[in-house]
Amino acid sequence: MARAPLLQLSDISLTFGGDPVFDGLSLVVQPGDRVALVGRNGSGKSTLMKVMAGLVEADSGSVVASPGVKVGYMEQDPDFKGFTTLGEYASSGLSPGQDYLVERVAEGLKFNPEGLITTASGGERRRAALAKLLAEAPELMLLDEPTNHLDIEAIGWLESQLKTTRTGYVLISHDRAFLNALTRATLWIDRGAVRRQEKGFAEFEAWRDKTWEEEDDARHKLKRKIKAEARWAVEGISARRKRNQGRVRALRELQAGQAAQIKRQGTAEMVLESGRKSGKKVIEAIDIAKSFDGKEILSKFSLKVQRGDCIGFVGPNGVGKTTLLNMLIGEMEPDSGTITRGTNLEMALFDQNRAQLDPNVSLWESMTGDVDLRVSGKADQVMVRGAPRHVVGYLKDFLFDEAQMRAPVRSLSGGEKARLLLAKIMARESNLLVLDEPTNDLDVETLDLLQELLTDYEGTVLLVSHDRDFLDRVARTTIAMEGDGKATVYAGGWSDYRSQRAETAETAAPAKKKQATGKPDNAPTEDGLSFVEKHRLEALPAVMERLEAEIAKLVEFMSDPDMFTNEPVKFQKATDALIERQSVLDAAEEEWMALEEKAAD
């Protein structure tokens, strides 16, 4: 028997005072769907998601969720009024006693539920919004750029959670690896229309290119037909005027149809040129170290950066990637060690906080007011790599239209702000490009172009990113920062770093154990246990204590006599969780008893 859809949109039309965003749009989301929602920046992805969530009302059409289906949306800018801590906000949609759900999610996303909202960063607030959605576990989750502000470890945790969930979801993300791993269908917004393919994002680009190729063929045939009909009209119409009026009308309809065709948005015409060559040695750091408030960020780290290198910096949030970057480029001094920089360096910086963009000025003023780009006496021109360009023409290269030129920067989407900052730094000639999280919010096509530009760039690139696919495509050296002041240099991109790290760990672990104890891992200790078993025996009591606490909270939650009648879905979820946690606890207790008996023999 066919299951009812989770959500159905029928004949949706929406206009924001100009051209329609959507016109006659219909789509269905089925139970268990894992859908990538893709499209160019500004195509309406987030708007469509808000329509699906009921946060934006369409001009016409209907949005219907099946009975009993809850649709959850990850707020981009959540309202924290009335809440003191991030945890209070994240658990606000849960029943009493379910706080443990937020605690488990917070551990994976790496944010502190006790953190005060008044001092929380934008990234912490977004992680709280994501935690709220995951803890509530609605039947349909709408996830708009959930990986923004997550480090690679947290992205991996989220990926594993979404792989195993039974909940349906629609996902917007710039992270190719994330989309490839999770999606089974693709919704593509293109010029106000939504197409669906029952294949995941990995097949999207081939589908897109084939669609565009077919459109180009059809447009070419239409042009040839119009040309032939127009020639006939000029040469033969006077002799056969009366009986060929229908053919003339058909020609006019063809011409009107051609005019009505919506032109595809082109790819940004970004250009990245290196200026004069720097010296062969760009940066050399010898035994540099840095600490903040007694916490060691970096310990005796050395690095030599040569002209033409492209170096990626990876590691958890807060580990010190930006600190290391700032020391290398001279924005911050190390506590000890030395850093020397080469000659003729011309640096361009893309900072993750977009601090170079004033939110209160217009796009026009953002460009023409920049001292480095200003053309003397010309309020409508900017200097682009040594030559004057009209500001409108230059910004059109980055897919901004004239209507946006006088709008404030704060009105831009995240992807548009990223493109504007790229426009500013690419107007300069440079031979040292410093990019701190440049990929956030960019669409797939712009990411592709940026990757090509960096690959062909003759200067030196220092890149901080959590985008695994982008690092694999661009970085030729990876510096991994893993905490406790440790930073290690690996050849290649993200995948190369992971494989080398795994090989090193496999080789080093047995040797380290044997060196410390004189025995291999599986050799028995004095109490008859191997080292691995002894470590497990010591860890199990804490594991069992945590499981018992979670079970106690579930039992308390289910003790409400009206819960089964009034909240059957929540009751069933709590029952499933209780069975699962009890099973894990039973297995842990059996393992602990077996190890205790073995140790006593």
Secondary structure elements and pairings:
Layout: E1 7-15, E2 20-29, E3 34-38, H1 45-53, E4 60-65, E5 71-73, H2 86-90, H3 99-109, H4 122-136, E6 140-144, H5 152-164, E7 168-172, H6 176-182, E8 185-190, E9 193-197, H7 204-236, H8 245-260, E10 281-292, E11 295-306, E12 310-314, H9 321-329, E13 336-341, E14 347-350, H10 363-368, E15 374-375, E16 378-384, E17 387-390, H11 391-396, H12 414-426, E18 432-436, H13 444-456, E19 460-464, H14 468-474, E20 477-483, E21 486-491, H15 494-517, H16 531-558, H17 563-566, H18 568-600
Parallel strand pairs: 3-7, 3-8, 5-6, 6-7, 12-19, 12-20, 14-18, 18-19
Antiparallel strand pairs: 1-2, 1-4, 8-9, 10-11, 10-13, 15-16, 16-17, 20-21
Helix pairs in contact: 3-4, 7-8, 16-18
